[in-house]
Specification:
Layout: H1 2-16, E1 23-27, E2 39-45, E3 63-69, E4 72-78, H2 89-92, H3 94-102, E5 106-115, E6 125-133, H4 161-174, E7 179-185, H5 194-202, E8 207-209, H6 213-221, E9 225-235, H7 246-274
Parallel strand pairs: 1-4, 1-5, 5-9, 6-7, 7-8
Antiparallel strand pairs: 2-3, 3-4, 5-8, 6-9
Length: 275
């Protein structure tokens, strides 16, 4: 794994010709519109990068973008990898580790999720303040790669409080509603049953999805700060559960994605001012 990570990182160093990324960005289902704000973007297909998995999900483009957003040099993943695609969690987080080796110090990860908090509506945005790993596995399982981080990384501050303040302030400036809460990750790909939604809410989650937690675990293992956002694309609230198809998720993600993009852009601007 260490050899493969180095081969991928060295390939990207050559391709990016001195580009020194500061921020990593992972865009989930239907949330690629933020890339339109990237200046001087260079695009590299995942298939061209040594040892990168290939996204098999229809709504994920499968490209790595390098450019500038709000003055930050950003590496952006337009499309991610999921456990349910058949990849190991080590493969799922492979790009995060490569971005860490290239120098990012903060990771912003987004997803489409089902809302289990009754205060939520489809098309709204939740900033993730903590998570529940219900995948039954971890990308940190197996022999520890000491060059990446410690055997037992502490996760009490999984989501950076200072950056959360920037995004909170950005939402207030925009006068837009932004929920805050706990994200639960399940393997999928089936959506949850009504009983599972009730259980997820009972154990403390506000939203549920099939990603994000592995990436955050890998990033925190490397000492990279994290921020996370969920686009609420369906509801797992008793009495409001409806049949959902992919197009419903994409439509809701497009609505939420506009708000999410504005919040992230505003937060990055405030973070840049605070540097």
């Amino acid at each position: 794994m260490w050899t493969e990570l180095n081969e991928a990182a060295n390939f990207l160093k050559k391709e990016l010709q001195g580009f020194q990324p500061e921020i990593g960005l992972v865009l989930g289902t239907g949330l690629g519109q933020l890339m339109k704000e990237m200046k001087d973007a260079q695009r590299i297909p995942y298939s061209a990068i040594p040892h990168f998995p290939t996204s098999t999900v229809q709504s994920h483009a499968g490209e790595l973008h390098a450019g500038t957003i709000q003055g930050f040099k950003v590496l952006g993943m337009k499309g991610r990898f999921h456990y349910y695609e058949g990849y190991s969690l080590a493969q799922v987080v492979f790009p995060i580790r490569v971005m860490g080796m290239l120098g990012i110090t903060h990771l912003v990860v987004t997803n489409a999720a089902g809302g289990v908090n009754p205060d939520m509506e489809v098309g709204e945005v939740m900033m993730i303040t903590d998570h529940l790993n219900l995948l039954g596995d971890s990308p940190l399982s197996g022999p520890n790669i000491e060059q990446l981080g410690p055997r037992f990384p502490d996760m009490h501050d999984s989501y950076d409080a200072t950056w959360a303040g920037y995004f909170r302030q950005a939402a207030q400036h925009l006068n837009t509603k932004m929920h805050e809460g706990v994200y639960a990750a399940l393997k999928g790909p089936a959506l949850e049953t009504p009983a599972e939604y009730r259980w997820i809410r009972t154990i403390g989650a506000d939203a549920v999805g099939m990603s994000t937690v592995p990436e955050v675990l890998a990033a925190r293992h490397m000492g990279i700060g994290c921020s996370g956002f969920s686009a609420i694309t369906d509801l797992g609230v008793p009495g409001r559960i409806r049949k959902v198809v992919l197009q419903d998720v994409l439509n809701a993600a497009e609505t939420a994605g506009k708000t999410m993009s504005e919040i992230i852009l505003g937060g990055l601007r405030l973070a840049q001012e605070a540097k």
